[in-house]
UniProtKB/TrEMBL annotation:
Keywords: Amino-acid transport, Cell membrane, Membrane, Transmembrane, Transmembrane helix, Transport. This is Amino acid ABC transporter permease. The chain crosses the membrane at residues 32-55, 76-102, 195-215. The lineage of its organism: Bacteria, Bacillati, Bacillota, Bacilli, Bacillales. InterPro entries: AA_ABC_transptr_permease_3TM (IPR010065), ArtM/GltK/GlnP/TcyL/YhdX-like (IPR043429), MetI-like (IPR000515), MetI-like_sf (IPR035906). The keyword Transmembrane applies. GO terms for biological process: amino acid transport. It comes from Virgibacillus salarius. GO terms for cellular component: ATP-binding cassette (ABC) transporter complex.
Length: 227
């Protein structure tokens, strides 16, 4: 097929894409692992930061604000380089995978903290007062009353963060993590057909995000009872 004199077959070699697909998909488990671990770290640290950010004590909210501002204001790739190439200067050596876990986890925590804070603030103050009347302490109220409702509010933006992490894992190829994009680059360099391989990996990332969006819809239905 020709478009403006350009043969589309030259842009995307279907045969090469099919042949290389198993090799490229060999990086999928690592992509998902880095994404899930990074998101897990981000969820835990993000909630802690959100609670600290909303505290009245400056010893809590000031460090949280600085951390969030720093992480949101620095490129993810630069932070990965600091962890993987910079820390060895002071005697701390991380494997590429560990650096990726920490990089995506610590970075995503800043965004998750703001999402959690907004979700927590969206819950009516009367919920806290009602829980207090039932003799629930702060942590019981948070766990049994507030978080289930806040989770429903936070699901869509948290899903967006997770999809951003999945796509950003391609940066881990720079520090030699054997994920999807790194596998793609190997084939692209070997076959001298970057266009085909980059289109292929773009379609794979897109497919992953479609699945994540479907899971998001299921989760929203599950937590709709808390509205």
């Amino acid at each position: 097929m020709n478009v403006n004199g350009l043969d589309l077959a030259e842009l995307f070699d279907v045969e090469l894409a099919i042949e290389s697909l198993p090799f490229v998909l060999g990086g999928l488990p690592m992509t998902l692992l880095v994404s899930v671990v990074g998101m897990g770290i981000g969820l835990v640290l993000g909630l802690i930061l959100a609670l600290a950010r909303g505290a009245n004590n400056p010893l809590w909210y000031l460090p949280a604000r600085v951390y969030i501002s720093f992480m949101r204001g620095t490129p993810m790739l630069v932070f990965l380089f600091i962890l993987y190439f910079g820390l060895p200067v002071i005697g701390i050596e991380l494997t590429a995978i560990t650096a990726a876990y920490l990089g995506f986890g610590l970075n995503s925590a800043a965004y998750i903290a703001e999402i959690d804070r907004s979700a927590l603030n969206s819950i009516d103050q009367g919920q806290w007062e009602s829980a207090k009347a039932l003799n629930l302490n702060y942590w019981q109220t948070l766990r049994k009353v507030i978080l289930p409702q806040a989770t429903r509010v936070a699901i869509p933006p948290l899903t967006n963060v997770f999809m951003d992490i999945v796509k950003a894992t391609s940066l881990a190829a720079v520090i030699t993590v054997p994920e999807l994009f790194q596998k793609t680059q190997i084939v692209a360099g070997r076959e001298f057909d970057s266009m085909t391989m980059y289109i292929l990996v773009a379609l794979i990332y897109w497919s992953i995000c479609i699945v994540i969006s479907f899971i998001q819809e299921r989760l929203e239905i599950r937590y709709s009872k808390f509205l």
